[in-house]
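Researcher: Next sequence.
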Amino acid sequence: MPKDYFLEMIEELGRVLRAVISAKRSEPARALQEINTVFTATKFSTKDFFDSLSTAELEAFIKEQDVHYSTLDVLTDLLFEEADIRLNMGDYVTVEALLNKIAFLITYISNKESEAKVLSLKRGPQKERLNFLLTSLHKS
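Model: Next structure:
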C-alpha cells in the first residue's frame, strides 16, 4: 500500500482520538462507540475481536497481519481513553484486561521503534499513565 494511504489512516485515527477525548466525560457512550468504529477500519475488523485476543494471540495476530507499529500506537492511545472511561464507569474487569493489552502494546511498539532506530518521546508518558491507571484500578 502506498505510504500516503497509511498517513491518511493515521491522520483519521488522530481526528477520532481528539473526538473521543472531547466526548469521554460528557458523552462516554458516544466516545466508546467512536473507539469501536475505529477498530472496523483496522486489520482487527471489530473491537470485540480485539478484546477476545489474549496478549499472546494479539502478538501473533499483529505479526501475522503485519500491523504497523504506528497504527498500534494510535490504537494504544484510544485504549487509554477507553480505560479511563471504563474506570469511571466502575467496569474494573474490562479495565484490567485493557491495561494488560496496553502494557503489552507499549513494550511491543518500543521494541519495533528500537529495531527501526526510531526515537519516540511517547513511551515514557504512556508508561506513567499506565502506572497511574493501574494504581487507580487497585485503589477501587
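Model: The radius of gyration is 15 Å. The chain has one domain: 3-139.
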